[in-house]
Amino acid sequence: MKVAIVHYWLVGMRGGEKVIEALCEMYPQADIYTHVYVPEMVSERIRRHRIIPTFINRLPRAARMYKTYLPLMPLALEQLDLRDYDLIISSESGPAKGIIAPSSAVHVCYCHTPMRYIWNMYHDYRAGAGLLARCMMPTLTHYLRMWDVASAARVDSFVANSATVADRIRRYYGAASTVIYPPVDTEAFSTAASSEIGDYYLMAGELVSYKRPDLAVQAFNELKMKLVVIGGGEMLGELHRLAGPTVSVLGPQPFDVLKEHYARCRALIFPGEEDFGMVPVEAMASGRPVVAFGRGGAKETVAKGHTGVFFEKQTVEAVIQAVRSLAHMDINSERIAAHARQFGREQFFRKMRIHIDSLLAQRSDAAEPKLARI
């Protein structure tokens, strides 16, 4: 069986790329199509595959400025020749699902979220854009929304990474979807003895505006309690300037450093709204509770009062109150880690295989010629 995986861009290793790694493990023969490919920024497992970039990859400074070429990506996807493939899996968060699949192939879209910069977070992105971008966005995003909705009809089956995303798929595309949580490598993390727990809280992940890392830093400035920030992104410099004496902004760190901080922190602070959010699951797999904004995927992964607490408004005061409320929670590291394991890699492999095999079987049955009645 010939398999193609279509991913929006391969320029780093975030949650979407972890899903691609798992799909590569499921289908080691798969070819990967993407708009932009920076080999040194992705894992060796992904690099083993034949990777075919679209023409976007050849445009000036595409490795860094790929998002500026967003209006050209629908055209780029439709130029891909996928006639030889039996199974096509698109990984959607940026434009990926809009390929033209042969009628004989099954097209499954694993949707991390419909493109947030043209749908649910459009106004946030526009408010933070420069003057030229703010002027151009209404026209460009109007065109992209029409194409995005039209291209949803090219998908045979949507798989959503959370119930939150399933609701967006229904709202924006009018399509049903199957929820299969992404593969979190929960076995890569371990708990620490209670005597090894430190006196700091942790915030980890990509430091971008919609994840609201500024809220956590400001809250811990006021609390005068220790916060360690691990991650890179466009807000790294701003957080360095914002951080008070009790906040340590470490920037990007190797996995071993992150793993140790997960296991020894008092709790993870998660102030943004995520589609699913692997970081809270990784923290819980390390036995640590989560203080999370009560929206998005965190509501599906964090068990209130057992593995963490929520705050309902994205304000400094709400974060402070939630952190203080942890004092009333019975924190059991082994129970928290056990809860996280339900989001491990095996559930992803099992559910994806069942779902895809069922679709392939249906397509095969439909293709078989029926004997004429005598």
Strand order of the largest sheet: 3-2-1-4-5-6-7
Portion in beta strands: 15-25%
How much helicity do the residues have?
Answer: 25-40%
Q: Which sequence of SSEs, written as H and E, runs from N to C?
A: EHEHEHHEEHHEHEEHEHEHEHEHEHHH
Structural class: alpha/beta
Major sheet summary line:
7 strands, parallel
- Mean pLDDT figure: 95
What separation lies between the terminal Cα atoms? Answer: 35 Å
Query: Shape, please?
Result: globular
- Counting DSSP E segments of at least 2 residues, the number of strands comes to 13
Q: Which segments are poorly predicted (pLDDT under 50) over 5 or more consecutive residues?
A: none
- Cα gyration radius (Å): 22 Å
Q: Treating each run of at least 4 consecutive H or I residues as one helix, how many helices?
A: 15
Question: Which features does this protein show?
Answer:
single chain; 374 residues; alpha/beta; seven-stranded parallel beta sheet; three-stranded parallel beta sheet; 39% helix; globular
Describe this structure in words.
With 374 residues, this protein is of the alpha/beta class. It has a seven-stranded parallel β-sheet, sandwiched between helices. The protein is globular. The model has no long low-confidence stretch (mean pLDDT 95).
Task: Note the topology.
Blueprint: E1 3-7, H1 15-26, E2 31-34, H2 44-47, E3 51-53, H3 62-65, H4 73-78, E4 87-92, E5 106-111, H5 122-127, H6 131-152, E6 157-160, H7 163-173, E7 177-179, E8 200-204, H8 213-223, E9 226-230, H9 236-242, E10 247-251, H10 255-264, E11 268-270, H11 278-285, E12 290-293, H12 298-301, E13 308-311, H13 316-325, H14 333-340, H15 345-367
Parallel strand pairs: 1-2, 1-4, 2-3, 4-5, 5-6, 6-7, 8-9, 9-10, 11-12, 12-13
